[in-house]
Amino acid sequence: MHQLAAALDPWDLSALAAAGDDELAAVFAEPGVRDDAVHALVRSLSTRGGPWTGPAGVVRVEVDLPDGSRDAWSVRFGPTSIALVDADPQVAVRLPLAALVRLAAGQADGALLYLADALDVVGDETLLLGIGGELLTGAGRPLIDAAALDPVEVSAAIAGVRTEHLAAVMAGGFRDLVLGEVFRRVPEFVIAEKAARVKVAVAFEIGGRGDEPDRYVVRIVDGTCTVIPDASPEEPVDATLELAGHQFLRLVLGHLNPVRAVVSGELKVRGQVLKALGFNSVLWIPGSAGA
Question: From the centroid of its chain, how far is CA 12?
Fold first, then answer.
């Protein structure tokens, strides 16, 4: 325990990463230890890689402690440095103590924690995304690095998450990140042997934010898959799928059966229903039984 406490200043993230949650709770139990550790962490961030060049703003970090209490700090990013401040934040994040340490050590990703409802965000999500994409963990990876996430892990993370939370995610600042990452990966999920002789084009009209849905067209021709973002309504397709943002997330991660969703009305299909269901059959779905 003494060795683990000594790892806090300077932060030895490898030692903290190797510790169990109970050990972390014990070493951070004293308020003075937590405060010293946070100051040490901010000092390490302010000197790592030179001056801060990412987005400027104040982030409040609220930590849930094992005894049911909470501690909080506000951190100003920019214009050239990172420092603890007493100022009103543009965005606040709340997470358990162990999750904060795992995040700082590079053992967790902020986007995955948010999707899994293990991290609350209130305020300017776009600012948080900008800072999280620039701020490196002890492992040298960004705090928010959606491109590095494993789809199977993401599927497992949202398995028991409340619909209200997923709807909020898909209505806020993380929506563009999620949609962009999902559709970037769609060609990787095409099962070549099943799609070799397939010719199909399906539009996704994804609601849940504002009046106008996001529209993507996915076209598979003889095994080759192309994605058209911001697709025009005049783009020719065989079928159009209409669904809310949270339903889309569950669909592509294997938690919404397309046939049952059509029958229940959760998923509306315009055009050729059989084409739409056949399209789904040539894709590898991360949370499906065969994934």
Answer: 26
C-alpha to C-alpha distances, 78 to 60, 86, 135, 287, nearest whole angstrom: 14, 15, 12, 40
Cβ-based neighbours of 137, under 8 Å, separated by 6 or more: 13, 103, 104, 105, 106, 143
Strand partners, 64: 70, 96
Opening angle at CA 212, ends 129 and 154, nearest 5? 40
Which domains does the chain carry? 2-149 (3.30.1050.10), 186-281 (3.30.1050.10)
Residue 196 has, within 13 A of its CA and on its CB side, a CA count of: 3
> What DSSP string runs through 129-169?
HHHHHH-B-TTSSBSS-GGG--HHHHHHHTTT--HHHHHHH
Q: What is the pTM of this model?
A: 0.88
Report pLDDT digits (tens) over 145-186: 988 899 999 999 999 899 999 999 999 999 999 999 999 999
CB 93 within 8 A of CB 61: yes
pLDDT tens digits, residue range 248-261? 999 999 999 988 99
Structure tokens at 258: 């397309």
